[in-house]
Design a protein that fits this description.
By secondary structure, the protein is an alpha/beta fold. It has 2 domains: 180 residues, Alpha-Beta Complex (Quinone Oxidoreductase, Chain A, domain 1); 143 residues, NAD(P)-binding Rossmann-like Domain (Rossmann fold), CATH 3.40.50.720. Helix content is 31%, strand content 25%. It contains 11 helices and 15 strands. The strands form 3 sheets. Strands 3, 4, 5, 6, 7, 14 and 15 form a 7-stranded mixed β-sheet that branches. Helix 6 links the parallel strand 9 and strand 10. The radius of gyration is 20 Å and the shape is globular.
Length: 333
Amino acid sequence: MADRRAVRVSRFGDASALGIADEALPRPLGNDVVVRVTHASVGATDLLARRGGYVFQPLPGFTPGYDFVGVLETESAVSVALGLRTGARVAGVLPRMGAHATRLTLSPTFLVAVPDALDSAVAATFPLDAVTAAAALRLTGPGTGPDRRLLVQGASGAVGAFAVQLATHEGRTVVGTASARTRAFAESLGIPVVDYHTADWTGAARRAAGGPFDGAIDHTGAPRVRDALAPGGTLVRTAFAGREGHERSDSLQGAAEAALRRHGHPRERVCSIPYFVLTRRPHYRALLRGLLSAVDSGRLQPPTPEVHAFDDVWEANRAAEHVAPGRKVVLAA
């Protein structure tokens, strides 16, 4: 009997490109541990990677999924030092894809404990998105209060909704953008919202905020976002929406252009969570631990999970293509 089952992208394309493979579990080395995955989210990045548009997955044959919730099946000296023993319920974000599997072998430095009262399916909806939002918000610069104005592109999206909530809790003046279809959900977060399809949406956003923005969080790579910022502001790019069929090349070009504007007016920063998780693990764990606690206490509102069985990964991917704002597709093993 195989040690685990894993989703594999056999070719780039629609959901029919997915398969489930029986595999041997990689043997734990050093202080690695084994996690039995119970829940893993299916997000926009997974869909982009499956279609062949994701920079970090240029070839098929990979297992999608960045974040997950599961149960620790083994422990090590490092996991014990982190307070994680066999049987603990844990959540994590991987530095590279692979979470859509029934078991994982990994370093315990990617794991944090899930609060006892927090439902596992709910906990699986947000680690990647919430860590992205929190890290991007920090990159916009220090300071809180209403004189700190933040623009959130795509406030109804998975990352945007968390960015809005986190910035609002800091007392910042927050304005979001949304389409006509998703505007109602964005407005339910308690902020002014402008339609980014209108001709003068940057001007409308500035007027709604009472002045130019000190910071902006953007997932599109659109140049016009810079028009909404003050000269000393900071624009944080969390993704780059490319042309269909050219997503990888457009994303690389967008990241390069943002890097050239690192010291511009306004300046630009790129928020790469895989790199952040890999290189700043204590900071990543502290962020994720705090976010799990905030959701558990009700201070942050997570997406509502739409749970699909692991063996129904094809339907889960189709559902994720059309998921409504405020909801997230989750695989349950």
